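Researcher: Structure for this, please.
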Amino acid sequence: MRVLMQARKTLFSVEGGDTIQILKTKEYLESLGVDVDLSLDLNPSLEGYDLVHLFNVIRPQETWTQAQNARKQHIPYVISTIYVDYSEYEKNARAGVSGFITRRLPERVTEIFKILGRAILNRELHKGLLPLWKGMSKLVAETCYGAAMILPNSFSEFGRLKRDFNLQIDEDKVAVVPNGYDAAIFNDSFEPEQKIKDTELLERAKDGVLCVARIEGRKNQLKLVQAFRELPYQLLLIGIPAPNHMNYYQSILKELPENVMMVGSVPHEQLSVIYRLARVHVLPSWMETTGLSTLEAAAMDCNVVVTRKGDTEEYFGDYAYYCEPDDINSIREAVKKACVTPFNPLFKEYIIKNFTWEKAAQMTLNAYEKAIGSNE
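Model: Predicted structure, token format:
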């Protein structure tokens, strides 16, 4: 089987969770014998391919164009929707001029505004923007209806997708494929080739609290830092600022108490060591489909604090400690409970059993076979 994965044009210049999902799915599909290529083009030749795999409906202008290209060349496609709803963050927490504007626009108009804003600020101007005249809802609906299979990361994501875009989709056309973590790196026996020489980093990580995420308003690190002013634990913020969130990053730097350290980017191989030393990982976001770093941390024996917003409860059930992103006290109390409660080894077993990239790749391959079969 030969498959072409297609994604947004900024997949590598502005990396996100979808970058990891795509690359890891590709890697583990190849270990199953699937021939997988990756293209960021809008209209590539599909000669020789059995299937196209699209990603990310919140970039509908690009995804729709890629879907139309597949249909014109009579190649079936599947789509991993990765559908997130940032409306609560946009209306309640986004700062600056963007926040002022988005609080005064309808949600779908806000999404178009954000797409155009990124196009200007990040130099994403290309012909893939042209379909925006159709409107976001129509682009998403046409892309989903034309797919041979739809692959959301959770049942709750698919429910949100159907509700927000008023989709009527046969459940036989849907295969939930959860996100995963890389068990080859995040395991008890893995030893990184590159040792960590930063002794302060290691000292702060030991029995401390981590937040591994890109620095941006949606991830809510500022309120997390504010919550730590009255906590006796060490917090490590690991991640780099998103391109359009430098003011947010600077606001965090101004707020840092002595028990909080910002680290920047850390290689995954070193992260395995840091997770192993830490006691808790916290991600108090305004919205998460999963939080890939949460899966990694849990696999390395960390208690996890996560937002209630999004799909986290479907993934973590009663094993996680939940907080409300707009409530500093809620974040603080969840961190306290997670720090004083021994790690439940059943949580780790649950993560290993259900959320590896190897398992996700096998589920994806099953969906591929069904999609190709339905098109014959």
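Researcher: Any notable elements?
Model: The longest helix spans residues 357-375. The chain has a mean pLDDT of 90.
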